[in-house]
Design brief:
This protein is α/β, with parallel strands linked by helices and 593 residues long. 31% of the residues lie in helices and 14% in strands. β13, α14 and β14 form a beta-alpha-beta unit.
Amino acid sequence: MPIPADPAPHAPPLSPGTRTFDHERVANESKHWVRLTAACNSKCVFCLDAEAQDGRFMPFDDICTEIRRGRDEKDATRLVVSGGEGSIHPRFHDAIRYGKSVGYRWVQTVTNGQKLADRAFFLAAMEAGLDEITFSLHGHTPALHDRLTRTKNGFDNLMKAMMRAVRDGRPIVNVDVCINKQNVEHLEAIVALCARVGVKEFDLLHVIPQGVAWDNRADLFYDPEEHRDALRRVFRLARSSQFHIWTNRFPISHLEDMEELIQDPHKMLDEVGGRRTQFRRYLDEGTAIDCRDAERCPHCFIEPFCSALDKHVADHNAARFEVWWIGDSTLLGRGAGPPQRPPATAALPGGAELLGVSDLPADPAGPLYLRAVRYTPDVSLPPGSRIVATQPEHLAQLAGVTTEVEVHLDKGMCAALLAMPAIPPTWILHAPTRATAELSATLDPDWRAFFAALPPGTRAQNLPACLAPGANLQRPLRILDAALFHDDGRRAIEPFVDRHIGETYRVKSSRCRACPADTLCEGAHIQSIRAHGFRQLVPLEGDTAAVVSRLASISDVSPRLRDGAPPLPPTPRVPVAGNEPVPFIDLHAGRRS
């Protein structure tokens, strides 16, 4: 079966309603992974989970407890039963059946297909309620697949199981491929083989430096740029209505002009969750994560997250935060233990001087960072405060205040600002990050055109210099959120992942290396890139000395372990009354592939 030619070599910027946003909604469905085994009947040379493969089969009562936890604590609607190889658990079918009984609408498994090659086993899985099967196929021939999985007859059994599943018609059938040096030039052949069988959905995983993959790095790791043509022949299928192509852990800078394939950043929750025990020890004890080293990190998909976490810990230890955000001012001083706002004689956590609230307290004890729904003309705040404006009607309400105003921009706000005779010098224009690519496509203006229409020297923040021509760039305030801490004072990892995705996850084009501000800039937010493409980033040209000097004075670029940044001690505990306790931690879970 021939693979269709690329229908759109240079896709236009995304707009609401495109297929990308349909994929985004699917990817953001709440899912829960449950490990049934720490054993596998394959021995893949790139296995991320090898260190956790001790041969154990999880007790069924423990499996049921973990399945229920996904519903009770996460309200998850999609259950993924995995391992090791989940299908070798003697109660594999019971786990599927139990997942359906407690309310999961969808149950999926990721498998090497060896057990499902047996007809009776496959039919039992269908009767139990299995909705989706993801087969892990890594070669287009028995020789290649079996060499990579180190499994005799692995290819033949997988293809037998895949064809049976497609013919049956009940489950959704798709394929994941771990792209590595051995199979990257055969990727098109792998996809074509599956297409002949009737499979049109693929999850293309980039090999990462975990487990035995790092031990076998000489045979597995490759430069995506050297294999650009082979990769793009398959990636372009994403623009065909016949195929669904997902990338997984693929280096983002290599997807320029194919931004629709950038993995939804919320997948970071799964990546961090698979190492949650190590992250917990890092935050609680300062124990270094065992894979963090200067040689490995450049190959790792979550390296930017780890560096952002390091920076957050370093900022807390050095008391460099400026805002302690609590939101609802009625929480002030409530509950046992240290209150969310200490008494006026006590310092705010992390060195903060401003208390962040979403409404005006009756008697503020110090400077505020106020983000309210509405303002009145007589609003008066303690000296040193900052007001946040988020709606166009706020501009008229705040026109006469002498307090510093942070104006959060969207298309409506930009139109209102351009209609004003002048922007007060106490105002700072802030480019917010968005939670999804769809929101970014809907709300973001043409940043470069907007700032080009403003007077030179307008104060602005949270954008790379190339998107704010003529602006006087400022550093955004560092905000420490009370929601990042449990009620016992320990830092919570999942809320930090959410914060990273929503605020600090930034990427650059490979073209940015030619920009004189490259080392001082972290690029654009991931959702902006997914919505508007890398094409918006343009290296600075002409007389840039003043701009680069200004950026050097405000640069807040995260330290990178790959650049020699040292491991960090744990941060102080900050008890926050009323916050949720530390969630369930499986100390024996190891890593999840």
